[in-house]
Amino acid sequence: MRIDLHTHSTASDGTDTPAELVLGAAAAGLDVVALTDHDTTRGHAEAIAALPEGLTLVTGAELSCRIDGIGVHMLAYLFDPDEPELARERELVRDDRVPRARAMVGKLQQLGVPVTWEQVAAIAGDGSVGRPHIAEALVRLGVVAGVSDAFTPEWLADGGRAYVEKHELDPFTAIRLVKAAGGVTVFAHPGAVKRGRTVPESVIADLAAYGLDGIETDHMDHDEPTRARLRGLAADLGLLTTGSSDYHGTRKTCRLGDYTTDPEIYGEITRRATGAFPVPGTGGPAQA
């Protein structure tokens, strides 16, 4: 089995629609794919409707968290999307996205960048607007060469010149809420130092003691020594280890299935979940 547990669609900051994403996952030879858009589940229905036979969909989300001033992304799998407290927190994060993005555009304008809110909003379309959309606007304006080049202290990285904070969950709260909704939590790309500061291993140990299920070890932003270190840490803490592409369509260079999760780990994730269950594809209308 080939299993990719971290992807994004146009419901947040990817460039593939949810339907295009699941069709692309099948074409890439995947058996299981998780749709984990930022702080939203609104792409799930479209993905399920288009799910081709032979591909299983894991519903999820990537929750925006922060601790000690450091951004943390928490992958949440197979939770009940209608659980009220978790749904309310996701809504608070989403509601803060537009004013935050507008504020970052304002900072960029003060720095002499001729970007407009209208440009960013057009790039975001119906998705949850965020830094990747602003980064793409900077690419189109010729300010930076690629989206990743915008995530530096000069521009949009945490604490960067154009960075603006947003409403984010405490990761301990995120774990509690996801667990209460019957879901499973995995710390996304914990060693991605190119994105900015990362939390120390002591914080990961505290999260594990609080109920964190796993950490994403195999990821494009982890070099091999980092992957080995994280695998060792996971073994010490009794955490599951996952691998994922963090696919964003054309917004990033990674491809679906670039990194995958061991089938036994996937099986354990599904055994722990009680809020929702993987959806097997039976051939959606998009294949007719």
Secondary structure layout plus pairing:
Layout: E1 3-7, H1 18-27, E2 32-35, H2 44-49, E3 56-67, E4 70-77, H3 84-95, H4 97-110, H5 117-124, H6 131-140, H7 171-180, E5 184-187, H8 201-210, E6 214-218, H9 224-237, E7 240-243, H10 263-272, E8 279-280
Parallel strand pairs: 1-2, 2-3, 5-6, 6-7
Antiparallel strand pairs: 3-4, 3-8, 4-5
Helix pairs in contact: 5-6
Describe the protein's architecture and organization.
By secondary structure, the protein is of the alpha/beta class. Helices cover 36% and strands 15% of the residues. It has 10 helices and 8 strands. It has helices at residues 18-27, 44-49, 84-95, 97-110, 117-124, 131-140, 171-180, 201-210, 224-237, 263-272, and strands at 3-7, 32-35, 56-67, 70-77, 184-187, 214-218, 240-243, 279-280. Strands 1, 2, 3, 4, 5, 6, 7 and 8 form an 8-stranded mixed beta sheet that branches. A hairpin with a 2-residue loop joins strand 3 and strand 4 (70-77). Helix 5 (117-124) packs across helix 6 (131-140). The radius of gyration is 18 Å and the shape is globular. The chain starts with a strand and ends in an 8-residue tail after the last strand. The mean pLDDT is 94.
User: What oligomeric assembly is this protein in?
Assistant: single chain
Beta-strand fraction estimate: 15-25%
Distance between the termini: 26 Å
Number of strands: 8
Q: Determine Rg (CA atoms, Å).
A: 18 Å
Helix % is: 25-40%
Element order: H for helix, E for strand = EHEHEEHHHHHEHEHEHE
* Major sheet attributes: 8 strands, mixed
Secondary structure class reads alpha/beta
Continuous helix count: 10
Q: How confident overall, as mean pLDDT?
A: 94
Dominant shape = globular
Low-confidence stretches: none
